[in-house]
Specification:
Aspartate Aminotransferase, domain 1, binds pyridoxal-5'-phosphate, 12 strands, single chain, three-stranded antiparallel sheet, 373 residues
């Protein structure tokens, strides 16, 4: 068996241990109680999550990947439509666009915070463009307020991929506030992680919320005393209630964990000052969270492997960018150049950031990274 990392990307097990009694109390009724209890738990998570963002509606679904697909479907996206997104994301983002029949058009990103370059979006809009799909990569808010102005001018929807950004704020509001629908993933390595898969779709639009519910729940209409009716062809996509129960226990701690993530990053930033590492820069209105600390370094491979050899779980995430994947050899053959996206992919390494890390472990990361640089 390979040795576990001394400084891992996640220590969720340690956090779950500290919440053991609460988790057991939350999960047991689902296993041993009324078989309808799961619906109530999921509904409670939806309302508490929406309240935590000041949003009107939230729909809990099985995964972020599926959630993006459902969001695009709820917005009526399909064959012949174009969606402007970015190349430095998970394949889930472009995959969801293509799986609903639309085509992804990639926009370059900013070298400062790695998010969609809003200045370049309008040049990519065609008569077929129907939506923008910015990504809050690593927890860095994309400037969705600026995108909202563009979207309103061109009658476009915005679906924000906030998979990695639960807990982040922008322009004085939680991320997602300027989008038609925002998606937050609960996969284990995300800022608010479950023990399996999960995601939340959040919207202030009652019609979109209703469509999302229909698509998530088989397309079923109102229950008729033991009978069934379907008003749409939907999917079986709701969040597993066991994950919902776990997330309900964890949600009240999110703010403290986000603060600790920011504290770790502040220490890393200060500790790496004066080295060849370039750390991300943020707009003054942007208050990111950090799923990891994505820095730019010369000799990416040397630094990445050196960190791992020293027991620090460095990852190179969202590189290569999606347009370099074999599956997309044809899909993006006519794309515009993406020089910043391509350059970042050759420079980034992600240092672990998880709230359980001690100051000593953060110090070790600084020492090892400085040594490698
Ligand atoms: C930016 C981004 N979008 C979407 C997803 C998909 O989320 P999930 O793993 O919940 O399907 C991920 C997962 O890593 C992601 O990083």
């Amino acid at each position: 068996m390979t040795q576990p990392f001394a400084v891992p990307r996640s220590r969720a097990g340690q956090t779950h241990e500290s919440l053991r009694a609460d988790i057991q109390a939350a999960v047991e009724p689902l296993l041993y109680g009324d078989s309808r209890a799961g619906y109530a738990v999921r509904a409670r998570l939806e309302s508490e999550f929406a309240a935590s963002l000041g949003a009107k509606h939230a729909v809990a679904v099985h995964s972020g990947t599926l959630a993006l697909f459902l969001a695009l479907r709820a917005c009526g996206l399909g064959a012949g439509d174009e969606v402007i997104s970015v190349g430095n994301s998970d394949i889930s983002t472009t995959g969801a666009i293509h799986q609903c029949g639309a085509r992804a058009v990639l926009c370059d990103v900013l070298a400062d915070d790695y998010t969609m370059d809003t200045q370049q979006v309008e040049a990519l809009i065609t008569g077929r463009t129907r939506a923008l799909l910015p990504v809050d990569l690593h927890g860095h808010p994309a400037n969705v307020k600026a995108l909202r102005e563009i979207a309103d001018r061109h009658d476009l929807r915005i679906i924000e991929d906030a998979a990695l950004a639960t807990g982040a704020h922008d322009h004085g509001l939680p991320v997602g506030a300027f989008a038609d629908i925002a998606m937050f993933s609960f996969a284990p390595y995300k800022p608010l992680g479950s023990a399996g898969n999960g995601a939340m779709l959040v919207t202030n639009d009652a019609t979109l919320a209703e469509r999302l519910r229909l698509l998530t729940g088989y397309g079923a209409g109102d229950a008729l005393e033991g009978r069934q009716d379907y008003v749409a062809e939907g999917y079986n996509a709701p969040l597993d209630p066991l994950q919902a129960a776990l997330l309900l226990v964890k949600l009240p701690h999110l703010e403290a964990w986000t603060a600790r993530r920011r504290q770790i990053v502040a220490a890393l930033e200060a500790g790496l000052a004066g080295t060849a590492a370039q750390t991300p820069r943020f707009r003054s209105e942007s208050i990111p969270t950090f799923r990891s600390y994505c820095i730019r370094v010369p000799q990416q491979e040397k630094v990445h492997l050196g960190l791992r050899a020293a027991g620090i779980e460095s990852v190179i995430h969202y590189a290569p960018p999606v347009h370099r994947y074999s599956v997309y050899a044809e899909a993006f053959s006519t794309r515009a150049p993406l020089p910043v996206t391509d350059r970042l992919a050759e420079e980034i390494v992600n240092l672990p950031v998880t709230p359980e890390l001690s100051d000593d472990e953060v110090g070790l990361m600084i020492e090892v990274t400085r040594g490698l640089l």
